[in-house]
Design a protein that fits this description.
By secondary structure, this protein is α+β, with helices and mostly antiparallel strands. 48% of the residues lie in helices and 19% in strands. A three-stranded antiparallel beta sheet has the order 1-3-2.
Length: 77
């Protein structure tokens, strides 16, 4: 299975248990934290993390998370 096939398969899943399992696996593989926690780890301010292009910011629910190691790409998703 290639990347596109995996994305299509996941986007068609309706079973929340399976989706949560996939989310947990992804989180364990990424260096992802809240903006505040990222700022504490990097000795920066939360505002500095929010405005920086050196961290990819993702919205999950009402929380904004920062992914260390990926730059912001300004894609709509």
């Amino acid at each position: 299975m290639n990347y596109n096939d995996i994305i299509k398969a996941v986007s068609n899943l309706e079973d929340q248990e399976k989706l949560v399992s996939i989310l947990e696996l992804c989180v364990n593989s990424l260096n992802i934290d809240t903006i505040s926690e990222t700022a504490r780890k990097e000795n920066k301010t939360p505002r500095g993390i929010r405005i920086s292009n050196q961290y990819r910011k993702v919205q999950i629910g009402k929380a904004t998370l920062a992914v260390t190691g990926l730059k912001e790409n300004n894609l709509p998703f």
